[in-house]
Design brief:
Largest sheet: 5 strands, mixed
Number of helices: 2
Mean pLDDT: 76
Length: 344
């Protein structure tokens, strides 16, 4: 008899849980249009079996929904109401999170003007002008709500307005730095606030002071003339005009606007902004627990601002920096700033 020469095939080994942290890779605000599903994403493949849980409380005493996960995302139905949630991923004997996300069936409005880092000149008394707020209109939206504040956390509301239009009449504001946001004002559906944008206003007093000192309009110079914020968050410096390219091969380094050095973060979201770089096609923003940015969390963005859940960058002191990107040029990192994350 001829012996069976077919080699035995051993079962594949069980894959080990991948090393490295798992962090969100999707937007901090997730929406689902009618007949679609919510989708959250993360930065690497998970080892199956893996589960994703959503809860209203950070301790997950009550789980609103639980879904099996594979790869780098999970899609789940509209079986939970809109609102703010904590979510976590369990793979093997490891649990990643909790992370924070806001779920809504209404897509947040997209802000137009003022742009991120824009300087609005209101120094001419002969010109009846003001800050023009505008955003993209949304189909079916009947009214909108707009807010502006000197504090990033909107602890002091200087402007709150409801309108049926997709813009406000020019609003006169005193000199300094401001933050603004907008949302659909719907009594029937939960609507999320838009991203938070920083902008600056130069009034007559600030312009005269600048001319008297013969100083150029510059972020650090303008910051000296800002009135104190009445909010709990330290104020952000004013913005500068877009940075001009001074080299054919190297992009200028962006100038960080907010948060300012040593700012205490106590809100659920961290938003960083910087002065736009002329010629940049996009930006890379990095967060790290050490100043050398070893193991940094990086994200490519198109605009001169970025928001991330505070829990995704770790508690305590967090360093951040940003560089512009353009094909065929060498990027330059901004100065390194840090903030104190009080969220645990």
């Amino acid at each position: 008899a001829v012996a069976d020469a077919t080699p035995s095939i051993a079962p594949p080994p069980v894959a080990a849980v991948q090393a490295g942290p798992l962090v969100p890779a999707s937007e901090d605000i997730v929406w689902a249009r009618p007949a679609y599903k919510f989708i959250v994403k993360w930065n690497r493949d998970v080892t199956e079996p893996a589960q994703v849980q959503f809860s209203k409380d950070k301790s997950f005493a009550k789980v609103e929904t639980e879904e099996a996960a594979s790869g780098r995302h999970v899609a789940f139905g509209l079986n939970i109401p809109d609102g703010n949630y904590f979510w976590r991923v369990a793979e093997g004997n490891q649990t990643h999170g909790p992370f924070q996300v806001a779920l809504s069936r209404l897509e947040p409005v997209k802000l137009l003007r003022p742009a991120a880092g824009e300087m609005v000149d209101l120094s001419d008394d002969q010109v009846k002008s003001g800050v023009a707020f505008s955003w993209e209109c949304k189909v079916g939206a009947k009214t909108y709500r707009v807010q502006a504040s000197r504090a990033h956390e909107f602890t002091d509301i200087l402007l709150e307005s409801q309108t049926k239009d997709c813009e406000l009449p020019p609003v006169t504001l005193s000199g300094g730095s401001f933050f603004w946001r907008a949302k659909v004002d719907s009594p029937k559906e939960a609507a999320l606030w838009s991203e938070i944008r920083a902008f600056a206003v130069e009034d007559k007093a600030m312009k005269l002071a600048r001319i008297k000192s013969q100083a150029p309009v510059h972020v650090n110079q303008m910051a000296k003339n800002l009135p104190e914020s009445t909010g709990t968050a330290p104020r952000a410096p004013n913005s500068a005009p877009a940075v001009s390219q001074n080299s054919a091969t190297t992009l200028p380094a962006p100038e960080n606007l907010s948060p300012t050095q040593g700012w205490n973060v106590s809100s659920n979201m961290v938003s960083v902004t910087w002065a736009p770089v002329e010629g940049a096609e996009g930006y890379v923003v990095q967060f790290s627990k050490d100043e050398q940015f070893s193991g940094a969390f990086s994200r490519r963005v198109k605009e001169a601002s970025f928001s991330i859940p505070a829990g995704a960058v770790g508690g305590g002191r967090v360093f951040w920096r940003v560089s512009g990107e353009k094909i065929g040029t060498k990027p330059s990192w901004s100065q390194t700033n840090f903030f104190e994350n009080r969220n645990r």
